[in-house]
């Protein structure tokens, strides 16, 4: 990422654990795509880069999900997008889970059209293959760069052309830089190599005349000093809701609903950091993923699930014990232990941040809050 112009600023990488242990027989590090926010020519940009070392940059279902999440963040925060494209398109053995549905592969190009309608700049750098639907990424960008004798764009590659028409043609002749820059007009900039392409990209970003938002907090907080309000009142906040007759009588459900309503309807950017347990309704009240925070982060010791493993095991053990009693059978301590152990183990595995990050989008857990705030709009 340094070559895009990020040498002197941090790169806020998103969803690094996407795809981790998700497919039993296949390893797809970071879902085969790198996404994140970095500063290019002084402008915060969303960067989406295919990793051709992972299945040729092909899209698995989780790859599509990660790409869409990056576009969602760019839309929410009006971030220009830079696509570093080198992809063979959809991973065909899993095409049924990639192609037809609303949030599948086609949604990427739908989002590109929506971003263009909202005047969010998009720049594509064709660094390798852009095949089939993937050809739309550079074609729908505001400006694109293609690398000589390296980048190619075509709806149907040489094997498909031969199968369909019998014509034999090389990838370069079918969709290379010379064809698209000199004849078809699909591409805008002709680059000699990777370095030249990224140099052109930086120049394009520089020419956007992008209006930087004011660093509001920096202008309010003098020298990073912070005056805490009501420091001695309500000095602890525990995520979650108390259970029991007393709290139900006092209307905890109604109070919790008010909290969920406030979080849902708040119009300011929301950033969620899960630093410990985030269980059940407490996750909803503290702006979990379902409530569309701009960013969601989990620390390594965080846990997220409907409830804790011990509590889940106790509930299910009680249900099993009552069922055995209705059947006139005994439910021994050994039976209870045999039931509880796998439940606790499963909840621990499914509640840890690595499991969550492989399947949905906790973004990161390391970079300072200033990086998150700087990207919001």
TrEMBL record:
Example GO molecular function: methylcrotonoyl-CoA carboxylase activity
GO BP annotations, alphabetical order: L-leucine catabolic process
Family statement: Belongs to the AccD/PCCB family.
SUPFAM superfamilies: ClpP/crotonase
Protein name listed in UniProt: methylcrotonoyl-CoA carboxylase
Family annotation (InterPro entries): AcCoA_carboxyl_beta, ClpP/crotonase-like_dom_sf, COA_CT_C, COA_CT_N, MCCB/AccD1-like
Region feature (Disordered): 355-377
Catalytic reaction equation(s): 3-methylbut-2-enoyl-CoA + hydrogencarbonate + ATP = 3-methyl-(2E)-glutaconyl-CoA + ADP + phosphate + H(+)
């Amino acid at each position: 990422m340094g070559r895009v112009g990020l040498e002197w600023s941090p790169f806020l990488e998103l969803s690094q654990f996407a795809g981790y242990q998700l497919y039993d027989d296949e390893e797809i590090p970071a879902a085969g795509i790198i996404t994140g926010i970095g500063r290019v020519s002084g402008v915060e940009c969303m960067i989406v880069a295919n990793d051709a070392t992972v299945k040729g940059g092909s899209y698995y279902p989780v790859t599509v999900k990660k790409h869409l999440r990056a576009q969602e963040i760019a839309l929410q925060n009006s971030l220009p997008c830079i696509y570093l494209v080198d992809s063979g398109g959809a991973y065909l053995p899993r095409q049924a889970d990639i192609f037809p549905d609303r949030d599948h592969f086609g949604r990427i190009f739908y989002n590109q059209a929506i971003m263009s309608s909202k005047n969010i700049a998009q720049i594509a750098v064709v660094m390798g293959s852009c095949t089939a639907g993937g050809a739309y990424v550079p074609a729908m960008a505001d400006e694109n760069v293609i690398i000589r004798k390296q980048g190619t764009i075509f709806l149907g590659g040489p094997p498909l052309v031969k199968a369909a028409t019998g014509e034999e043609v090389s990838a370069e002749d079918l969709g290379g830089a010379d064809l698209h820059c000199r004849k078809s007009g699909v591409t805008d900039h002709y680059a000699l190599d990777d370095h030249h392409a990224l140099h052109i990209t930086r120049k394009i970003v520089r020419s956007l005349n992008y209006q930087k938002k004011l660093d509001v907090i920096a202008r309010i907080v003098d020298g990073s000093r912070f005056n805490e309000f009501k420091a001695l009142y309500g000095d602890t906040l525990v995520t979650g809701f108390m259970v029991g007759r007393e709290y139900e009588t006092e209307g905890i459900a109604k109070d919790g609903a008010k909290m969920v309503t406030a979080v849902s309807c708040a119009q300011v950017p929301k950033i969620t950091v899960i630093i410990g347990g985030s269980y059940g309704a407490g996750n909803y009240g503290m702006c979990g993923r379902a409530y569309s925070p701009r960013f969601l982060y989990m620390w390594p010791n965080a846990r997220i699930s409907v409830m804790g493993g011990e509590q889940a095991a106790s509930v299910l053990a009680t249900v099993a014990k009552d069922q055995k009693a209705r059947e006139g059978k005994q439910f021994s301590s050994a039976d209870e232990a045999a039931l509880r152990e796998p439940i606790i183990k499963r909840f621990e595995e499914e509640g840890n941040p690595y499991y969550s990050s492989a399947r949905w989008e906790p973004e990161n857990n390391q970079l300072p809050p200033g990086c998150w705030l700087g990207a919001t709009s």
